[in-house]
Write a structure and sequence with these properties.
This protein has about 210 residues and is mainly alpha-helical. The protein has one domain (about 5-210). It is about 80% helix and about 0% strand. The model is unreliable at about 30-35 (pLDDT under 50).
Length: about 210
């Protein structure tokens, strides 16, 4: 991918980042009056989205599924913003991400003549979803079924990219979240019973998995 194409992807990501806070507000109960944290997110969102898009483009530049990965990442940014704001992963947004992933990867597999990769994507979604259903059913688990649905969706593009991407994308979120929780506990910013959003860690870990995959 040429430098010009990467700049185009970065600009596209930045534009997506501009609209992410507006879309996220439709699914939250934030007050109409801007707060410092929300203002900071408005400014942070465009460069963050650009970084996410460019990372995927550099790592998967020749992959026919790259447009699908970018589309899922765009919805994922909105989901992360909503979960950070109100500890929710709305089913309509997760459904949109799932539809984009399944439909887009199906089209990419057919156009590229690689139906085996679609089988890998479906297997990834199944394995990811089933593993996290079991985790959610463990005694004392704080894993919600919104998180389980999101993981199943993320398993589709991770499975498309292969076993290494899938394993990394499923393990890294829990490493990231566990490290964050431990740091906050040590700093006494949270208590053991404090509920923290898992969605951003799931999305960040899946993104990193796609980079190494």
């Amino acid at each position: 991918m040429s430098a010009a194409a990467l700049w185009g992807v970065a600009v596209l990501g930045g534009l997506v980042g501009v609209v992410v806070p507006r879309l996220a507000r439709r699914f939250t109960t934030l007050p109409t009056r801007p707060r410092p944290r929300r203002v900071a997110w408005v400014w942070l969102s465009p460069p963050l989205a650009a970084m996410v898009f460019v990372g995927l483009a550099v790592a998967q530049r020749d992959d026919p599924g790259l447009p699908v990965l970018l589309a899922v990442a765009a919805v994922g940014l909105v989901l992360a913003a909503v979960d950070l704001a109100c500890l929710r992963l709305p089913d309509p947004l997760v459904g949109v991400a799932g539809t984009l992933a399944l439909g887009g990867l199906t089209a990419a597999a057919l156009l590229a003549g690689t139906p085996g990769r679609l089988v890998g994507a479906l297997a990834g979604g199944t394995v990811a979803g089933a593993a996290h259903v079991l985790l959610a059913l463990l005694p004392g688990s704080r894993l919600g079924f919104g998180d389980v649905k999101l993981v199943a969706v993320l398993g589709l593009p991770l499975g498309w990219l292969g076993r290494d991407a899938l394993l990394a994308g499923l393990l890294l979120p829990h490493v990231l979240h566990g490290g964050l929780v431990l740091g906050l506990l040590v700093a006494r910013r949270v208590r053991r019973d404090t509920l923290l959003p898992l969605g951003p860690a799931l999305l960040a870990g899946a993104w990193l998995g796609m980079l190494v995959g």
